[in-house]
Amino acid sequence: MNLMNSWLPLAFLFCSFVYMMIPVVMSRVLGLGVYKKGKQSQQAEVAFTFDDGPDPCYTPELLDLLKQFEVKATFFVLGSKAEQYPDLIRRIHDEGHQIGIHNYTHTCNLVICPWKIKRQHIDRTADIIEAIIGERPSSYRPPWGILNLADLLWLRKSYQIVLWSVMGWDWKRQESSHKLTDRLLRNIKPGSIVLLHDSGDTAGADVDAPKQMLEGLRIVLQELKSKPYSYVRTDKLLHKRVVSGYRMDQNIHSSRHIKSRII
């Protein structure tokens, strides 16, 4: 009995490691079971994505900026904010952008029971978005890009899990617009999925950080006008990969949705 008791803490630590760290390595490092970028092609497509909104101050400014430069983007929104600002969700949709899921609240999946993640965060947010715009989202990005083992095994059967290949590091005010501009211009390539934030009221972020993001993004879009890039939603960027046979991330509804929106 004493020997068994001595092994229990080690067994718990091992199981915790498997549950938490292996999926992080598989998804964030190896890109298994998720999408981190599109294929490089002659179209030179790039997908800008924005997390943590909608925000009543910064999201409208961002939408104005995207319209000015004729950019289509993807917004991974929080269900609680979608409930609070349905008009912004409608505007995002009406202006041709994609809406994805970023949980109901900005809570790390590692501290949520697996069955609650899908039911209380993902499906709940999908229901809210569908009630507002009449379309059910098919893409998901977990807060901080962190999945647990259950997520990696189950969620990809129902949702397209989208991470990123270029991070703006834009959630702190000390990251000036000049630093952001330089970082994005150095790293954006055909097929890039770019992560930025249109809200700064989540844990670890600065409330006014999106102001600098908007300043930097304006410069980036202006500088990139000389390059043959087209700026598309993630469902457009990843469309060929999804339709060509990698359907394990799509349920029947979302596959039809993507096909009807793009083909």
Automatic annotation (TrEMBL):
Coiled coil: none annotated. GO terms for molecular function: hydrolase activity, acting on carbon-nitrogen (but not peptide) bonds. GO terms for biological process: carbohydrate metabolic process. It holds the Pfam family Polysacc_deac_1. SUPFAM superfamilies: Glycoside hydrolase/deacetylase (SSF88713). Gene3D superfamilies: Glycoside hydrolase/deacetylase. Residues 44-232 form the NodB homology domain. This is Polysaccharide deacetylase. It comes from Paenibacillus pini JCM 16418.
